[in-house]
Automatic annotation (TrEMBL):
Protein name, per record: Class I SAM-dependent methyltransferase
Transmembrane domains' residue ranges: none
Residue ranges of domain Methyltransferase type in the record: 60-154
GO biological process: one example: methylation
Enzyme class, spelled out: transferase
Family matches, as Pfam families: Methyltransf_12
Length: 238
């Protein structure tokens, strides 16, 4: 059974939030590199810009995208949005440890809950869209983000693509990744079972591009890939 947008928020409970930093770095080989490159891609798309307001959607957990961007660009400020209270609290702790709370506004809820007149110079959506059930929910979050972006503003999108069962070699390699970090064969089997049942990724890069186009974004440039995961930069059109 696939997850729905509601259960996607609910499943990121306190237990999952507490282990998110370690588990995400195992599940995504190159986790920190992806976050670092996302910051570099945004900075490159801006050119010389001393200040910017960045909307960070699904910021809960490690807050690593904010940490990476803030380190690169000391004049940027951030609005962090997440529907999971435990995940947002985990992010808050990371931001506090890195002395970034004064540069970050935290919002428990969804993008649609932000004030209608709030606009941003850029946005990130990292590790979120494959948890949303169906194309309509994915398209809706892209559209909600677009509504808060200035004309031509960049958006970083990152997450899993492909139907998991359609890529058996990648799925097997994913299992080996967990084994590489100490999981037993039975534990690997359980983890892969949860993956197959707990998310609904787009079935191809072309599907991601189509969803972005339908939501009012231009062609996306892929800048990172790791097994099922890819990251792109696109910009608001119109």
């Amino acid at each position: 059974m696939k997850s729905s947008p509601l259960t996607s928020a609910e499943k990121f409970d306190t237990s999952r939030a507490n282990e998110y930093g370690r588990q995400s770095r195992i599940a995504l080989a190159g986790y920190d590199a992806c976050q670092d490159l996302a910051a570099c891609m945004l900075a490159a798309s801006f050119g010389p810009a001393s200040s910017a307001k960045i909307l960070v959607v699904g910021a809960g957990g490690t807050a690593q995208e904010i940490i990476a961007m803030a380190s690169l660009e000391p004049g940027w400020r951030f609005t962090a949005v997440d529907p999971s209270e435990p995940m947002l609290e985990a992010a808050k702790q990371q931001l506090e440890a890195n002395h970034l709370l004064e540069r970050t506004s935290l919002h428990l809820g969804r993008v649609e809950d932000l004030a209608a007149d709030e606009s941003y110079d850029a946005a990130t959506l990292i590790g979120v869209f494959h948890h949303l059930d169906g194309d309509d929910a994915k398209r809706q979050i892209f559209q909600a983000i677009r509504a808060h972006l200035k004309p031509g503003a960049p958006l970083i999108v990152a997450g899993n693509q492909y139907a998991y069962a359609s890529q058996p070699l990648l799925l097997a390699a994913w299992g080996q990744r967990w084994r590489q970090h100490g999981a037993s064969p039975d534990e690997v089997k359980v983890k892969l079972g949860k993956i197959l049942q707990g998310a609904d990724p787009p079935h191809s890069e072309a599907a991601v591009q189509q969803l972005l186009h339908e939501a009012g974004f231009g062609d996306a440039t892929r800048f990172f890939s790791s097994l099922f995961w890819s990251a792109w930069l696109t910009c608001k059109t119109g």
